[in-house]
Amino acid sequence: MEIHLEKIDARRNCYRFYEISLEPDLFAQTALVVRWGRIGGRGRSRVAGSGSMREAQDLATRLLRLRLKHGYALR
């Protein structure tokens, strides 16, 4: 699963992206990887959590709702 969000506001010079992806980890579980930054740049990334598929999906859903609340849109 991979979700790509963008927030563009030219008046404020705001061109941002946010990606949420579920990937397998080394322990046969699921890791939630988050990547964010300015559109066109490399951005930053971190592993937000690791555990069962259900836990990772719940965390991804919470992050998605938060980003949508802050003005990001699905791309």
Automatic annotation (TrEMBL):
Lineage: superkingdom: Bacteria
Matches recorded under InterPro entries: WGR_dom_sf, WGR_domain, YehF/YfeS-like_WGR
Pfam families linked to this entry: WGR (PF05406)
Alphabetized CDD domains for the sequence: WGR_MMR_like
SUPFAM superfamilies: WGR domain-like
Domain WGR span(s) in chain numbering: 1-75
Protein known as: WGR domain-containing protein
